[in-house]
Amino acid sequence: MLTLKRLFSTSHPSVDLKEMKKFQRLAHKWWDEEGEYSALHSMNDIRVPFIRDTLLNMSSNYHLGNPLSGVKILDVGCGGGLLSEPLGRLGASVTGIDPLEDNIRTADQHKSFDPVLAKRIQYKSSSLEEIVEESMETFDVIVASEVLEHVADLEMFIKCCSRVLKPEGSLFITTINKTQLSYVLGIVVAEKIMGIVPEGTHEWEKFVPPEELERLLESNGLSVKTVNGMLYNPLSGSWSWMESTSVNYAMHAVKSGLQGQSSPIDIPSEMESEQPSGTAGTTM
Predict the structure, then answer these.
(1) Residue from 111, 65, 114, 115 nearest 91 by CA
(2) Does the structure show a pLDDT above 80 at 269?
């Protein structure tokens, strides 16, 4: 087990120290809906229903009002808790991790305003590698939203995700494709011209094509089920689904099940409700 710990926490760190310095300056700005993270706030309008509806469509029953009750979610690179909180409000038990202590302080302070969230969400200043040993096959769901384009070792990051995810558990990712269009819109327009995000936030070389990501996932025992293109409208400040994945995209993958181990997510239920509408996108 010591060897395993060294492999995942020391030899191949996915945390990029240069990236941490970028986000250090903005750690107190996470909950400013009109500030540097405004696009992430509005992204919740599509990424939260995408996660919720996908999970509910995989389950035979669920709580009305708390549809994700009983689901253990790991939010990797949680920042100030922008995604952890709405998932907690849906009833999930959420663990948010981020290597930047100032981000965790911001997240902890904000959740303390809501006693319900204070019980459902726990935050930890940690890299993904650091929790692998203690969290093997622990989580029903892992969320890595707008994180992949900031990690130092993508292959190790995906390997760690697979390690801490239960068999037949779900991994949700949103990230940026590596195309000429993503360079123009994601860096030139978003950073240099319109200032939607601070200049230097992204490096085009770290963007990930969905085909490359799918190969990495499959080599680590995860099967891609859905790929959705995402479009940000800077004039309205809103996100929408689109067929093209040439700039932003969301992906849902499921870890293969192993005999004798845990079954698919079964969300406890007290009463029946209508099935949610499906999300846009391409089902694999």
Answers:
(1) 65
(2) no
